Amino acid sequence: MIQLLRTFIVIGFLFLGCTLQAAAQQKVYTINGRVIDKATGEGIPFASIALKGKTSGTTSDVDGRYSLKISALSDSLLVLSLGYRTGVYPILAQSTQTIDAQLVAAATKLQEVKVYAKGGDPAYRVMREAIRRRDQYNPARLVAYQYDSYTKIEAYINNFDQKRKNNKRPGPIGRLLGKLPAIIDENGNAAVPVFISETFSNFYARTSPEKTKEAVLKSHVTGVGVTDGGLIAQLTGASFQQYNFYRNSLYILQKDIPSPIGSQWETVYTFRLKDTVSLNNAICYSIEFTPKRPTDLAFTGTMLIDTLHMALAQIDAQVDKRANINFVDELHIQQDWETTASGLRFPTQTQVTIDTDEPAPRAPGALIRFFTFANNIIENKPKELPFYDPAIELADDYKESDTAFWQSVRPSSLSPDELRAMHVVDSVRNVPLVKVAGEIIKLGVIGYKPLGKWNVDLGPILNSYASNNVEGHRFRLGLRTNTGFSKKWLLSGYVAYGTQDEQVKYSANIEYIVSRKPWTVIGVKRSYDLERIGVSTDNIGNNSLFAAYSRFGNIRRPYFQEENLVYFRREMGRGFTQTLAVRNRSFEPLFPFAFQPQAHDDNQTVRSTYQTTELISETRFAPDELILQNDNVRLSTGAIRKPIFTLRYTLGLRNVLDGDFTYHRIALGMKHSFRMGVLGRTYYTLGAGIIPSTVPYPLLFTPLGNESSFYVGNAYNLMNYFEFVCDRWATVQFEHNFNGLLFNRLPLLRRLKWRELVTAKVLAGSVSANNLAMIPTTNAAGQAVEGFSSLTQTPYVEVGYGIDNIFKVLRIDAIHRLTYRDNVSRTGVPVTPFAIKLSGWLAF
């Protein structure tokens, strides 16, 4: 009954409006305000606002705000929303006025009656037509677009003043938070603001080729444990706040959430036509959508579909807390879509609210809000391709702004609580204990400790200590300069000492930034340190934790290496990075080693040491990768949709800087991930290489093994260190995470939010007869020379299955080694055919 009455009122107003538009008067009156729930203070989206006895009306936005321009006044304003009593408010006889409506929830609810047309709920007919026209209104189909973007992010600590059982006092953390400056949230509870940012930028995009660029013009950041620096300014802009429901899925919190108007709409969701409502003088279908299975990672909510164009006009979507997302009690997205000049739809206003799950009963929680506003949209005017590089760029004066500027770019006035929060967060972060906590957070995330006025950072802390059979206790002190020292020069290095070998090791690196656009650097490095065959920087990659771990325990086949390196790196275009380098290295083994010189060498004496000089060319192509600039260091946010390719060529030069060998090495790699609908996400890496030359085996390819109890993503986890050596190789590493597809359907396991996964790793390779012949029986001292194992025609294969997200941070992998289970290891370490390995990281 209430629904029908509301529908008839809105349709009646709109019908009269269409017939009386010609009689509009010249004078314009403006009424604006906000519609809120009187009990909670939260904004009510999609509320209908109309003049009593008149034709004009509108609908509130996702935050409950509205603005109504009319040519004639009435005596009162009607505010209606499903589930609330109708509000009636007097109108003053003035040109501009503000009317804030506080609606009271209806005391009783009528029993729901569902009426279905033949063939099911009529919502499905609407959805099929909206899906058919999806490409017609998808802004991603534009040749290009650009807009002015305003982004605001707020973070609060809340729920710390709740009463505990038996009326006990709050815990120590709650008592501490209770002493900090706070505001009162919409629920009447204390909330401590810990982060607030505002960013204003110009955002550009084009489709062929697909490129985006954000020019951050102004940014202001205040928070605990953060500084108002360039990295934060880039992270809080529009580049990370893109929510397009016309895509098949939205990538949020590292999760692929199917869109209710994406290709899986009928597979994942159930739809119901609720009502027809008026929005900006257009009649819209109000359609409710829910996941077919409540535990699926999908949205629940309501969307408005324009009845004339069958296009998305508004959406209010949230993810049920039963879905498999860590640390999140509620994920809520509210979005307005407006018609552009070309007739497409564009998301002009978006608010995302993340209410975190409390880690323990009565423990404090956190509330994070993201608000974005797009204005001055320009369509189909693409820029030249070089314009889009780099993808994020900071204006030189991005930190220089005042209150007047922010007032001019904000889409609406901030509420008194929001304004007060900006002042309160300054007081919070200056509390001594909070300052210490902020420094600890920065140290844990960055790994370096700034040393104040010296403009240098101490670290990485992770590498400060190790213990092994060669060095004994290893102590290391590392330093690097920051932008306070120079914005062009970056100096870094370390000194290490072992109590057992009593050797001093060191490294010194000087890098000069030639240009920031395009990014161009040159650098030189000199180092002398202990290394081990098969576990070097070249094959460990960026796994700093595994690199630190490899310094512990029993180091087999150790050697000292002196390295001199000169390199040049330049970003050639979006995604293309070219590196050229000259490297000279020595090899001084601490184990029985020797090689037989080649036939053309004058000296045929068996030798144990050698030196190499190499020219290195590395080309990296990552078209979907977004690079951030943190002071003088560049950080990658990874790639989501497109693969990353790497081609590396090494040329060994004989008789150049005392190089002993001429050789070639070519390696090609590809890394990618893709979504498989409701089945989860697949990650895979492909690699291949060849060394068509005769060189000592330390210069061949040694696949990365893993003898630890922890699972390492880029290693063969049941292969020993230095178990195999290849001069021709091909590899596939595969992982598929089902994201709880099975466990979410088992009542006993559903609450645990475990996620099942499978893995597989395959390596095929061989060693030429010439490289095998380089190994003599004994060295110059008469010691037996240790050789190596090589693969036959049978590839190395290991497969596994596991459970992720145990206690939200742990992962267990059960791995089976299918081939070479009886391999006689040259290292003396027995082969493990099956193992269970742990790993852990903080993930959503």
UniProtKB/TrEMBL annotation:
<dbReference type="InterPro" id="IPR043741">
    <property type="entry name" value="DUF5686"/>
</dbReference>
<dbReference type="Pfam" id="PF18939">
    <property type="entry name" value="DUF5686"/>
</dbReference>
<dbReference type="GO" id="GO:0004180">
    <property type="term" value="F:carboxypeptidase activity"/>
</dbReference>
<protein>
    <submittedName>
        <fullName>Carboxypeptidase-like regulatory domain-containing protein</fullName>
    </submittedName>
</protein>
<keyword id="KW-0121">Carboxypeptidase</keyword>
<feature type="signal peptide">
    <location>
        <begin position="1"/>
        <end position="24"/>
    </location>
</feature>
<keyword id="KW-0645">Protease</keyword>
<dbReference type="InterPro" id="IPR008969">
    <property type="entry name" value="CarboxyPept-like_regulatory"/>
</dbReference>
<keyword id="KW-0732">Signal</keyword>
<dbReference type="Pfam" id="PF13715">
    <property type="entry name" value="CarbopepD_reg_2"/>
</dbReference>
<keyword id="KW-0378">Hydrolase</keyword>
